[in-house]
Amino acid sequence: MVIAIVQLYGDHHIIVIAKGVPEMTTSAYGGGTLSQAIRSRMIPGINGLDVHILEGGYESPGRPLALLLHGFPDLSYGWRHLIPLLADAGYHVVAPDQRGFGRTTGWVNDYDTPLTPFGLLNSTRDALALVSALGYRSTAMLVGHDFGSPVAAYCAVARPDVFPSVVLMSAPFPGTPDLPFGTAESKVAAVQHGPNARDLAVALAALDPPRVSYVQYLSTRAANDDLWHPPQGLHAFLRGFFHVKSADWPGNRPYPLKARTAQELAPMPTYYIMELGKTMPQTVAPFQPSADEVLNCRWLTDPELEVYAQEYGRTGFQGALQTYRVYTDPALNAELSLFSGKTIDVPSLFIGGKSDWATYAAPGAFELMKKKVPRMGVALADGAGHWIQQEQPARLAELLLDFAKEVGKSDVSNH
Question: Where are the domains of the chain?
């Protein structure tokens, strides 16, 4: 049982997701929707967390480790179709609930908690500590999707000895932040190019109708309650959200954006550039799939979707939303400049869905990634939107295993 300890500080109730959760088995997680080859368990003492993982291929010691890092609003459960495929290929496959998500505990579930523990480099330390706790010196495969993509990228930047290859999914890595260079003799400070977040928010709000970035909305205090208690119910909201960001919704026809301006961003789907004043549940409600579409959705059946509804119904979304707040606070990302000028030098691959706007949602990031990551391959999967590991798991497994073979050949030739 997960215990939430409610502590009163002034006028605030702070919910601490308690440690010491008993080990959970497959039968206690997933409502019978998981393959018998997947088990659920807790790993204590991971950088201040007790981490919940799903794993496959654990029966045979000595297998190479494949570490899978999910994004928002996903969970370790999002890898359920892929885990058995990689386990069958000979890997020990581990997918954790990341900090702030699911059954991982040890984080404070409150909007007013300090955000430093949710910082990108601390999430990188979470991954490093998990690998060590599992008894590995390095991974054979590291995959990060959505929020997991920048975590995986910084794993490869900071510790290439532990993470000797990396696969980024959906969210391109634009490189480490640049520090001003050659400015010592300049009489003026270096000028930031392009609008800052505040200027962009003002420009979006000035559009007709007024708009707001989903990142800005999801960083607000109200967002957690909006998502947690939507008028259509949590199950229906999640169904609409997963559907509208998938290849099943025909409106997803992404293309590269030229600049980070309000005019260029405005044509994006409303789940990215929302109508100001609408919540995310209100935004996705008009795109709710029909009963036939739900019945034919083999990659996310209603019993599988109910796992998400139960997990988020229990925890809410605030822990998961903290990362958006971190990304929008320059002070919390200042530590990343430690790696200024450093690149991902290990073999790397970017995988996107051809129907996924995330590849282009940050204008210029995809193009920068191809320039700044010298050993980066790119694969865009047909029939996939944002949820590649669920929509097209067999194709994803094929891409990952082919990449792993190429990495292996490269290692042999280098020795």
Answer: 4-177+340-414, 197-322
Can you tell me the distance from the alpha carbon of 413 to that of 235, in angstroms, rounded to the nearest whole number? Answer: 51
DSSP-derived pairing of the beta strands 49-56 and 92-96:
antiparallel
Place of tokens 């099943």: 248
The two three-digit tokens of residue 85, written as one number: 């495929």
Dihedral (C-alpha) 398, 404, 405, 411: value to the nearest 10 degrees?
Answer: 170
Give every CB contact of residue 164 below 8 A, 6+ residues apart in sequence.
Answer: 138, 139, 346, 347, 407, 411
Residue with tokens 């954790």: 96
Kindly report, residue by residue over 160-204, the tens digit of the pLDDT: 999 999 999 999 999 999 999 888 887 765 555 445 788 999 999
Tokens, residue 334 = 């200042």
User: Cis omega (within 30 of 0) on the bond before 64?
Assistant: no
Q: Which CATH class is domain 4-177+340-414?
A: alpha beta
| pTM for this prediction | 0.91
Contacts of 220 (CB under 8 A, 6+ apart): none
Q: Are 171 and 387 in contact (CB under 8 A)?
A: no
Q: Is the dihedral of CA 336, 342, 348, 349 positive or negative?
A: positive
Amino acid letter for position 409: K
Rounded distance between C-alpha atoms, residue 35 and residue 204, angstroms: 45
Residue with token string 């500590």: 129
User: What would the pLDDT profile of 10-37 be if each residue is shown by its tens digit?
Assistant: 333 333 444 333 344 444 799 999 999 9
Which class for 82: exposed (0-12), middle (13-18), buried (19 or more C-beta within 10 A)? Answer: buried
Checking DSSP bridges between strand 348-353 and strand 376-381, what pairing results, if any? parallel
65 phi, psi to nearest 5 deg:
-90, 130
- Give 345-378 as a DSSP string: -S-EEEEEETT-GGGTSSTTHHHHHHHH-TTEEE
